[in-house]
Amino acid sequence: MISDKRRVGLIGDPVAHSYSPRLQQAAFDALGIAAYYELWQTSGVQLPMRVQSLRNVDCFGANVTIPHKKAVLPLLDHIDPLAAHIGAVNTIVQRAGLLWGYNTDAPGLLLALQEHSVGEGNNKATSLQGYTAILLGAGGAARGAAFALAGAGVERLLFVNRHLDRAQLLAVEVQQDYAGIVLCLDDPSLLAAYPASIIINATPVGLHEDSSPLPTEVLSRFAPDTFIYDMIYNPAETSLLRQARARSLRAANGLSMLLHQGALSFTLWTGKEAPLDVMRTALY
Ligand code: NAP
Q1: In the predicted model, is pLDDT for residue 3 greater than 70?
Q2: Residue (of 150, 112, 114) closest to 131 by Cα position
Q3: Is the CB–ligand 1 distance for residue 162 below 6 Å?
Q4: Nearest to residue 144, comparing CAs of 213, 99, 185, 90?
Q5: pLDDT of 189-234, one tens digit each?
Q6: What is the pLDDT of residues 37-48, one digit of tens each?
Q7: What is the atom index within ligand 1 of the atom nearest the CA of 65?
Q8: 85 C-beta closer than 6 A to ligand 1
Q9: Mean pLDDT, rounded, for 86-94
Q10: Is 203 in the pocket of ligand 1 (CB under 6 A)?
Q11: Whose CA is closest to 190, among 171, 209, 165, 162?
Q12: Separation of CA 137 and ligand 1 centre (Å)
């Protein structure tokens, strides 16, 4: 019966492109958990009411996506230390009517990079020593990525964002406990190529239109050991990924990050180990 089922969903604007429902529903069904995962299209004005609706005990909580990962923080009762440090929440858990905020994007990205054989590590820790990370974007997803990459010990962290001031603010926060080199640019054509670079697209450029956040001539400067990661997964093959493959650079879309951040969210809601293979099959 529907009334016995727990609710959980994705809060964002837009949400229609998301694969989270198929990922999470497959996991609930596989473990026999009576829950259904919905898409909750939510504007900025609607956000407080939407978050309030999660307090009902029939609700596991929610995922939060573009553009609300920062705005949701003051609406919650408790913020997990990692999410507070990052300043972005992508997972909300309801416990006895109180709302807890977590960030699974950051560990999810590191697990995804491990899966693509970037850096060294095991399920618990990833080391990216010797790498230069180039982050395109300075929004909610980039925040998680920046703290994760800094924590994994990248040698250099470059932010490229059209509003330079946003990148600089994020850079100042990251530098509070990061001893590596940090640079900010507002023009990707100024990017210099470093060996062992990881270029991560954390902008929505390529999500709605067939365009790339990086000019082709910029990508041509990078060595064959460069890894390109596009957080976008729908479409599966963005313009950036096509540019990368045309230059024989290793590249992957954001499905692996979606998988790992989603598995971590699932465990927070249910207290159970996520059925990773089931979730992977639902996505790929
Ligand atoms: P967000 O908070 O709204 O941030 C968007 C960022 O992209 C901002 O830095 C913004 O720059 C920049 N940007 C937006 N439109 C742009 C344009 N036309 N040209 C250049 N820069 C532009 O969004 P978000 O939550 O970080 O999400 C970013 C992307 O990552 C989305 O596509 C989302 O779906 C994806 N994502 C994927 C996963 C996954 O699991 N695979 C997880 C999280 C996010 P300004 O600061 O200059 O405005």
Answers
A1: no
A2: 150
A3: yes
A4: 90
A5: 999 999 999 999 999 999 988 999 999 999 999 999 999 999 999 9
A6: 999 999 999 999
A7: 25
A8: no
A9: 96
A10: yes
A11: 162
A12: 6
Backbone angles phi, psi at 120, to 5 degrees: -125, 145
Closest atom of ligand 1 to CA, residue 163: 47
Is 83's pLDDT higher than 90?
yes
Q: What is the pLDDT of residue 179?
A: 93
pLDDT digits (tens, 9 = 90+) for 225-282: 999 999 999 999 999 999 999 999 999 999 999 999 999 999 999 999 999 999 999 9
| pLDDT at residue 1 in the model | 42
Known catalytic membership, residue 124 = no
CB 121 within 8 A of CB 127: yes
Distance CA 232, CA 190 (A): 24
> Is the distance from CB of 140 to CB of 72 less than 8 angstroms?
no
